Amino acid sequence: MIKGNFSDYKLSSELLKAISMLNFKSPTKVQGQVIPVVLERKDIIVKSQTGSGKTAAFAIPICELLDWDDNSPQALVITPTRELAIQVKEDIFNIGRFRRIKVCAIYGKSPIYNQERELRQKTHVVVGTPGRIIDLIERGTFDTSNIKYLVIDEADEMLNMGFIRDIETIISNLPNERVTMLLSATMPTDIEDLANEYMKEPIYVEIEDENKASDRIIQERYNVDEIDKKKLLIDITIVENPDSCLIFCNTQLMVDDVYSNLRNMRYTCEKIHGGMEQRDRLKVMNSFKKGNFRYLVATDVASRGIDIEDISLVINYDVPQDCENYVHRIGRTGRANKAGRAITFVTQREEKYLDDIHEYIGKEIPLKVRPKSEAVDNVKHEFTQKINTTPEIKEAKDAGLSKEIMKLHINAGKKTKMRPVDIVGTLCNIEGITAEDIGVINIVDISTFVEIFNNKGELALRVLQETPIKGRLRKVNKADK
Ligand code: AMP
Q1: Atom of ligand 1 nearest to the CA of 305
Q2: Which CATH number do you get for residue 249?
Q3: Does pTM top 0.85 for this prediction?
Q4: pLDDT tens digits for 218-263?
Q5: How many structural domains does the chain have?
Q6: Choice from 5, 22, 33, 394 to test ligand 1 binding pocket (greatest atom count within 8 A of CB)
Q7: DSSP E strands: which ranges in 18-174?
Q8: How far is 245 from 376, CA to CA, in rounded Å?
Q9: Same domain? 30 vs 11
Q10: What is the whole-number distance in angstroms between the Cα of residue 306 and the centre of ligand 1?
């Protein structure tokens, strides 16, 4: 039975508070089906699209079931990409915030030492990509002996990327006594085999996407010669004049080319592709999420799973050669049931891919006639005005949650033998602050970070200026997010 309210499930008040502050009013379909099953510790296979609320569907029951006092990792979420790992980590962290759930993300192309250091601390949930998970298991720094919950997210994508053997290697390192959740948009036989082999009488749920991305989004296409694409892009962006726009190209080279062209035309614009450093990719993605610039040129690294709200226009500068990628790309607009728009440029050479897409989505994308130069000139003024104004900064998903939470930085850490109990002890001695007001504590070499809930951050900050911690006055200030 699907419940209409989160409060109908037996969830702790800490979780309900976070859910409400994240502005989740009622469970989505997938959440309605998955939460009760996982709360009963049963294995589950979920066939559902991204954007359906599937992350919270597993994150909510996992955060509920975790034993806070247990220090070694109890849940492992495997994701195909680093970007998704980071996003899922943040989602779980937000949901488990008032239960003080510690979540660690581990992924490649990023210093392994930092991740090992994090894993040495109390960690409840690990989210990671297959290669790095295996590396850390082999180095003996990721202790999997206590894993009770395993999530295999975007299993079909994992298969496409050749990770299935890696998944098996990881599973062979986990205890048999565990709950396994497998999520996938499609169910190819390799994934069914994986489920049969490693899951115990799984419950199977399929979430029909009534309002499919491809139905919800207005799609159009333009025929164009390769040589004329740049001009068409400029014309279309002038006419559409979007608040935020994601432009997809098939190759890194093309991304670089389109990006420099837009930059030269003074567009507020960034780019993202697999050839860039992970740090830079993340920076660009976060900045785009905040709405710091309007145009992002990207390869398919930005097409999957990534949750950015309010992208008004997606442009396929090149036709994707894989039909699923088409649906993923256009699905970046029209999130959370909002209307969206997707425009595809088609050269003669690409028509064969377009035919495949038509067959895959079960309809023909309407062909449009490109705007005449007078039509472009007529609206150019508004376009120029918009690109010359700073975009409105978007509120982050967890803004409501973060408002009453303050993170403090204390200038002492492991090197001075600081322990969580020293922090909790000092804070609880402050009049008006109890253990309930203290969130996740992170102790690193020479610093400690502690979250203070319930709008008590200012009070803690003020009192700690003149209260010794572990026998000495410490420098305490607000931490950056
Ligand atoms: P996902 O399918 O996990 O990528 O989630 C898609 C988006 O829906 C994310 O931005 C979530 O924060 C949001 N979301 C998840 N569950 C709910 C809910 N019950 N109500 C409203 N939004 C939700």
Answers
A1: 4
A2: 3.40.50.300
A3: no
A4: 999 999 999 999 999 999 999 999 989 999 999 999 999 999 999 9
A5: 3
A6: 22
A7: 44-47, 75-78, 103-106, 125-128, 149-152
A8: 18
A9: yes
A10: 12
